[in-house]
Amino acid sequence: MTKDGAGLKILLAEDNHFNQQITTITLQKHGYAVDVADSGRQTIEKWMAGHYDLILMDLEMPDLDGLEATAAIRRIERERGGHIPIFAVSAHHRASYLDRCVAAGMDDYLAKPVNPLDLEIRIKDHSSKTAPPSLNMAQETALFDLSSLRDMFSENEVRELATLFVKRGREMIVEISSAISKKDAVALKLKAHQLKGSSSQIYAGPLTRVAAKMEHLAEKSEFEEVGPVFVEMKAVFDVTARALEKETQA
């Protein structure tokens, strides 16, 4: 087994001991060094006392939940400098949770159970946000999850929905580009929100996250930062669309 995470030290904020064990063992098998915090307050204390490359933050914990703990860490960083990447970890998949995570200062969002391959992709994406992703065949499977749709629809219907998603997605990318050119924050926020919503329906995690990032920037009218995010969004959409078409082709 390759040790893709070798040298990376992760602080796992999780109050469920069973989940702690499973996640820790899984990540260690992939080469990550893992330390565990049982609560939001302990997460802050360990982060301040130690050196970590990443925090995996459960959203629901005692004394301080993941959102509160993240906001506290960001306040401390504003005073002393630095930025620790914080990835939310939750069993919730609704788009509203993404908004709350972004508002709290989180960098990314992972669904439980944590998939080490997905985590590796997220870490690489975070470390090179402006570089178009270069994904191999194994990584493409983490771009979306059609299992929920396949539980409800026939394969032909899933294929039709995938085709509609790709077609409408390409249109939205053009509309987002136009809104950026015009510096139309209202239109940009709406189109990014729509892309985020449709992406979340097929559990297209990377695309959902970058759309949420764009929506957040549009809400603040921070047009000086949208360029690199649009480059990332276009690249992530392109690889997602290609992989989706490949999986659903007749």
What's the pLDDT, averaged over the residues?
A: 82
Q: How can the largest sheet be summarized?
A: 5 strands, parallel
Output the number of helix runs.
Answer: 11
CATH H-level superfamily of the largest domain: Response regulator
Strand order of the largest sheet: 2-1-3-4-5
Strand segment tally = 5
The ordered H/E elements are: EHEHEHEHEHHHHHHH
Provide structural commentary:
- It is built from eleven helices and five strands, in the order βαβαβαβαβααααααα.
- It has 250 residues and is of the alpha/beta class.
- The chain has two domains: 9-127, Response regulator (Rossmann fold, 3-Layer(aba) Sandwich); 140-248, Four Helix Bundle (Hemerythrin (Met), subunit A) (Up-down Bundle).
- The chain starts with 8 loop residues before the first strand and ends with a helix.
- The relative contact order is 0.11.
- The model is unreliable at 129-141 (pLDDT under 50).
List the helices and strands and how they pair.
Layout: E1 9-13, H1 17-29, E2 33-37, H2 40-49, E3 54-58, H3 66-80, E4 86-90, H4 95-104, E5 108-111, H5 116-127, H6 137-140, H7 147-152, H8 155-182, H9 185-201, H10 205-219, H11 226-248
Parallel strand pairs: 1-2, 1-3, 3-4, 4-5
Helix pairs in contact: 2-3, 4-10, 8-9, 8-11, 9-10, 10-11
